[in-house]
Design goal:
The protein has 152 residues and is mainly alpha-helical. It contains 4 helices and no strands.
């Protein structure tokens, strides 16, 4: 019985049917790895350029919001430039304190959620590996068993 015939097999994971399929996948991965290593300088340069462009647009957006709030405060409360900046800084400090408090409150639930996800992923991986192992025939299991015997 092959792994793909098993009723509990996960459709996301495909195990090679023969050596040619495995060699084809290894060749594709090796080609992608070679391309990435050969062009790493260009890829890093493009990534940094896009990141710089993103930060420039974010800075422009923040300047627009700051200018709009400053003008709104000036119209509503007849404040000058300095007083508007003081109001915005105080508002930002209050907002930062509020966010810190909310993060402090939510941190234990976040850790519990991460633990549950980690345990679930570990269980799924163990089930997938055991299903794969049960699906192998004895000829395929022998080299793996020998490697495990040498390691352990």
């Amino acid at each position: 019985m092959h792994i793909s015939d098993h009723k509990h097999s996960n459709k996301l994971y495909h195990y090679p049917n023969d050596d040619n399929a495995m060699l084809k996948r290894i060749a594709i991965r090796f080609t992608l790895l070679f391309f990435t290593i050969a062009n790493i300088d260009t890829l890093v340069d493009w990534s940094l350029g896009l990141l710089d462009l993103l930060f420039d647009y974010l800075h422009l957006l923040l300047d627009l919001v700051e200018y709009s709030i400053e003008n709104l405060l000036g119209l509503l409360f007849s404040t000058g430039h300095y007083q508007s900046e003081i109001i915005m800084v105080n508002g930002a400090i209050v907002f930062a304190i509020y966010l810190t408090y909310r993060c402090y409150q939510g941190f234990p639930q976040f850790i519990d959620h991460q633990k549950r996800n980690f345990i679930a992923a570990h269980i799924r991986r163990n089930r997938r590996n055991s299903t794969y192992w049960r699906g192998l025939n004895l000829i395929s299991k022998r080299p793996l068993h020998e490697v495990l015997r040498i390691i352990c």
